[in-house]
Amino acid sequence: MCRCVLVDTTCTFVCIKCGLEKAYLSPSCVSFNHPPHSQLVVSPYSRKTRFTGLLRKILGVDNGPLASDLVWNYLAGSAPFQTTEDIIMCLKNSPLKTKYYNSIHVFAKAFLRKYETPNCIYTPLQIENSLGQLFEEVVFQWCRFSTNPSFFSYSWLLEKLFKQLQIFENYQDFMKVLICPTRRLKYETRWKTLVTRSVRLD
């Protein structure tokens, strides 16, 4: 690698000067390469980073798994698919250890017979900014008022926020929706508790 700033994408290092990318397993960090040693600034777990990563997968602005991952060849062997449900079923029945259900949108782009960009009045960037602000408000209210140490299911929360922005129907084919009625009721009850504390979430 050249002697410049390397950005960790969680599965690769990318040089922002020359563009060289190298697969690498590491903690979430940014590497400032100063010979003969590299200084690593390690970032702790971030709910916002986790949320944004999942959101971008739904919006279809994520690259998906590494090109070398077996999932690509496995799906290609059954492609083209008619619907995203067909892709999900193919992954479900596969022997793959990692199913990558959160990457349905990028798989749809690659393997659907007739992929169509979601018809939405907002751009992906506008959606990311709007839902990012709502998510930060949720985290703030949860940290301040929740007596339960566990957070929301990200799948449930993404569905809830997409509905808040009235764009759930546009992206539901690419979302992993929480099915369990007991867990859905639990999170809905927790949500209503937070809503009473903040009009911005209502």
**What's the number of extended β-strand segments?**
5
Order of helices and strands: EEEEEHHHHHHHH
Number of helices: 8
Provide mean pLDDT, rounded: 85
- Cα Rg: 19 Å
* Share of residues in helices: 40-55%
> Could you tell me the strand content as a percent range?
5-15%
Classify the secondary structure makeup into a structural class. Answer: alpha+beta
Largest sheet: 5 strands, antiparallel
Label the overall shape.
globular
Runs in which pLDDT lies below 50 for 5 or more consecutive residues are 28-38
Number of domains: 3
End-to-end gap: 49 Å
Major beta sheet, strand line-up: 3-2-1-4-5
Summarize it.
It contains eight helices and five strands.
Defining traits:
5-stranded antiparallel β-sheet; 44% helix; alpha+beta; globular; 202 residues; 3 domains
Description:
This protein has 202 residues and is an alpha+beta fold. Helices cover 44% and strands 11% of the residues. The chain contains 8 helices and 5 strands, in the order E-E-E-E-E-H-H-H-H-H-H-H-H. It has helices spanning 47-59, 70-76, 84-92, 104-111, 124-145, 154-164, 168-171, 181-195; strands at residues 5-8, 12-15, 21-23, 29-34, 37-42. Strand 2 and strand 3 form a beta hairpin. Helix 1 runs antiparallel to helix 5 (124-145). It starts with a strand and ends in a 7-residue tail after the last helix.
